[in-house]
Structures are given as C-alpha cells and as structure tokens.
Design a protein that fits this description.
By secondary structure, the protein is α+β, with helices and mostly antiparallel strands. Helices cover 41% and strands 17% of the residues. It folds into four domains: 9-121, no CATH class; 144-220, Orthogonal Bundle (Muramoyl-pentapeptide Carboxypeptidase, domain 1); 243-295 and 358-447, L,D-transpeptidase catalytic domain-like; 297-355. The longest helix has 24 residues, at 52-75. It is globular and about 95 Å long. The relative contact order is 0.13.
Length: 484
C-alpha cells in the first residue's frame, strides 16, 4: 500500500522555507521545482477535495526537490571532473545513498536542519555565503556605475572631480569613506587606503594609484562578481569537509601557499604556478618527504618542448646550466655525440639531469607528495618573479618564496631538525632525503573568489578560464527537472 513520505505539514513548510533562501547558497530555486510547488500547493489548499493526481504530483515534486537539494548541498550540483577534467581534489560524501538518506530524515521531521547540516562545514563556505548575500543585495539595488577618468591616473594629492566619483564607486563595496566635506574632489589619505584595499582584494599591485588595471577591475559588473562567488561556492561543495588538522592549501588562482593548522593559517608564502598552457592541476595528496639539494631530472614535456630546441639553438646550453645527459642506468653520455635534430623529431633515448646547486631549477629544496601528475612544491633560483602580482610562469609545479621557513615548520616533529640543521645539510651540497615524521595533506585548489572572517571579499582573475564552464553547468536544469 502506498504510504506518502510527506504526511507532515511541518516537513513541507521546512522544505519550502529552505527553498526560498537557496539562492544564497548560489543555487537556483527553480532547479528544485519552487514555482511548480507553490502553484500546486495553492491549488490543493484552495480545493475542498484535492485531486489524487495533484496529491501524487506534489509528493513526487517534494521528494525530488528534497533529494536534489540534499545531493547538491552534500556533494555539489555539478560533477567536478566532468566540468573540469583537471579537478581531482578529495570529494565530499562520495558514497552516500541519497535516497535512503532522504527517507530516514523525513521520518524524523528535521528537513531544514538536515539541509543546513549538508552544507560544507568550512568557514570559507559560510564566509562566501555572506559575501554572496552582500553582492546580491548590491545587484538588486542596480549594481554600481561605471567609472572612468580623463586623467592618465588618479593618486593621492590630486584635486579633480573624478576623485569624488571614485570615492562613490568604492563605497558601494567597501563602505562609507570619510572625506573633507569642504573639498570632496581631493584625493586624501583615507581614499588612498581604500584604493590600496581594493587593489589587494582584486590581486592588483597595491600602490594606491588608480590606473588602467584598477579602472578595469572597478568596472567589472556586479553580475560577474555574483557569478564568480556562485562558482566558488560550488567548488567548496565538491571538496571534503576533512582536509586534515594540519594541511597545505595552494590556491592556484591566488598564487599563494597556506599552511593551516586547526583552522588557522600559521604560515603563508607567495607561489608561482603553471602557465595557462601548462596548468597546475587541482588534486589532493599527502606530503611525505623533503629533498635538500635536489638534482633535477628534466620531465619529458619540458625536455621535448624546451630543452632539446634550446640545445639545437645553443650547443653550450647544457654546459651553461650544469646539465648532464645520462642513460637510464645513470651513465654519462657525451652531448656532442647526439644528433639533436633527430632527437627533436624521432625521440630521445636518454635523460637529462641538472646537478644540485643554487642555480638548480628546483632551488635548494623540494617538497614531495607522490602523484601521477608529477607535480611538487619547490624552491627556485628565479627570485625576481615573486615581485609580479600574477605569477603563472612554471610548467605545472609550484615554486614558493619562503621554502626554508616551510621546511622548518614541517620538520618541527622530526627530532633534531631545526634551521641550524637545515643550513648544515644545505652546506654539504649533496642531495639528502628527509622523511616527515608527520606527513601533511596537500590540497591544490583553484578559487577565484573568497571572503575572510571580517567580511572582506577577494576576487582573482580566472587565469585558466575555469569559471565559465562551471557557471554554464550551474545554470543548466537538472535532468530530473526536465523529466518531471
């Protein structure tokens, strides 16, 4: 005999209450039959004797809505690896039977509480939700006016009517900005600090000077900002709630590495990531060892695309970089005996290795977390690149600005390892592997929007063009919605 799941009006009310707010999760209420449910419920309430077909349809729509909501909140509306084949980070709730889950929670009349509990537990998610509410409110009020100036740039000390317009534009997202009421056209210190904050929030050079790059960022419409937040909320729904008590998080889009312990950032440093055509992949792994004074065996892609063409153009290339050609068994091969033109087209049977040293491409230390991408974190001799605000210069691996400080922290549970011991090891000028007593989870992520605990919202340029495919998928109706 048929027994409806939605006998309790309390369950229905809780589901509808949640649906009315689900846009603040970055989800579309119409994906969960919001309008259909409201119309059908109104029809049933107005009818003295509800039609059995209407009741059956209501049961079906409510169940499908709840099932979809639970699964979308619990593991994402979209499939991460379908949307982004290079997204392999650890997933949330990969093995949950959502049908059984929905059935059990309905019987306990905890619909709204259950749905709320399924949202990611990371405070990054709740912070981003607050940011979405803020930007949706701005959007509903009409967004912000475009800004431009007849001057080449605006900076502190300038007196010009465009300064007042700049202050008005910044106040939309950064709150009221105090100024001298006698002359609102004067670019004062308070406005300078707000420009610096805006530039920091948008990954620009934070010099307080309003030039072309800052103006372009000011004129990104609120709709794009809302979309960016929605995309990144979905990324957090993909990601496991348990990243590890102590873990490393690299935000590829922000060119930054964080070491997080018990929810607090205990160390951060600038990072260099893969070029757009050699993207750093998104994945999770476990760092198990470090190598001081590493040598570098050139990966096949770099060997084929970079090194062999360089040797053809400059026969002295290998010698200048202390690189050796070796066989698979490690025996040296004379580079002058190799037909490099043929190697470029017919394959290369050898390996090329760069010896340890300060000019080694990996620098003085590499951090290893075995993975099939052959990606790792390492030092670099090219220190000048860290002065750039956008740092997509590598072939996929992550170079960091303060590798020795990271090594010191990671080795804090290895007896006898401190900075003095690290320096002694480096001075030996030979490779040494050190296994971590406390292995550390590593998560390479791609986040183009986030917010901090103070409510400051940050955006980054989508250097790998990963947002748009995700947003297209989020806008698409779910399959079950199309069938019902």
């Amino acid at each position: 005999m048929f027994s409806p799941l939605w006998r309790e009006r309390e369950n229905i009310d809780q589901l509808m209450d949640f649906l009315r707010e689900v846009h603040l999760e970055g989800l579309n209420p119409e994906d969960y039959h919001m309008s259909k449910l409201e119309l059908l419920m109104e029809k049933i309430v107005d009818s003295r004797t509800p039609d059995t077909e209407d009741l059956a349809e209501l049961e079906l729509l409510l169940t499908d809505s709840y099932l979809l909501l639970a699964s979308h909140l619990g593991s994402g509306k979209t499939d991460s690896e379908t949307i982004d084949p290079q997204w392999h980070a650890i997933h949330r709730n990969p093995d949950v039977d959502w049908v059984s889950f929905v059935d059990s929670t309905l019987r306990h009349r905890v619909v709204k509480e259950t749905l709320q509990s399924l949202t990611p537990s990371h405070r990054e998610y709740s912070n981003l939700k607050k940011a979405l509410a803020k930007y949706v409110a701005i959007e509903e009020k009409g967004g912000w006016d475009s800004f431009n100036t007849s001057l080449r740039k605006l900076e502190k000390g300038i007196n010009h009517p465009d300064v007042a317009l700049l202050r008005t534009r910044l106040s939309v997202t950064q709150g009221d900005i105090t100024f001298d009421s006698i002359n609102e056209n004067y670019f004062d210190e308070a406005l300078h600090q707000h420009v610096v904050l805006f530039q920091m929030r948008n990954g620009l050079t934070a010099d307080g000077v309003v030039g072309r790059g800052t103006i372009d960022a000011l004129n990104i419409p609120v709709e794009e900002r809302v979309a960016s937040i929605r995309a990144n909320l979905e990324r957090w729904r993909w990601l496991s709630d348990d990243l590890g008590d102590r873990h490393i998080l690299v935000n590829i889009a922000n060119f930054e590495l964080l070491l997080i312990e018990n929810g607090e950032t205990i160390f951060k440093t600038e990072a260099i990531v893969g070029r757009p055509y050699r993207r750093t992949p998104v994945f999770s792994s476990r760092m198990t060892y470090l190598v001081f004074n590493p040598d570098w065996t050139i990966p096949p892609t770099i060997l084929r695309n970079d090194v062999i063409p360089a040797v053809i153009n400059n026969p002295n290339y290998l010698n200048q970089r202390r690189m050796r050609v070796i066989t698979r068994s490690g025996e040296n091969v004379d580079p002058s005996a190799i037909d490099w033109q043929r190697a470029a087209t017919s394959g290369f049977p050898y390996m090329i290795r760069q010896d340890p040293g300060p000019d080694n491409a990996l620098g003085l230390v590499k951090f290893m977390f075995p993975n099939h991408h052959n990606v790792y974190i390492h030092d670099t001799p090219s220190r000048e690149l860290f002065r750039q605000t956008e740092r997509s210069f590598s072939s996929g691996c992550i170079r960091i600005n303060q590798p020795m400080k990271l090594a010191e922290i990671l080795l804090d549970t290895n007896p006898g390892w401190d900075m003095q011991r690290i320096n002694q090891t480096l001075a030996e000028k030979r490779s040494r592997t050190v296994h971590l007593q406390r292995p550390v989870p590593v998560h390479l992520l791609y986040l183009t929007a986030w917010a901090d605990d103070e409510g400051i919202v940050y955006f980054r340029r989508d250097i790998y063009n990963r947002d748009e495919p995700l947003l297209i998928a989020l806008r698409q109706s779910t399959k079950s919605d199309e069938e019902i």
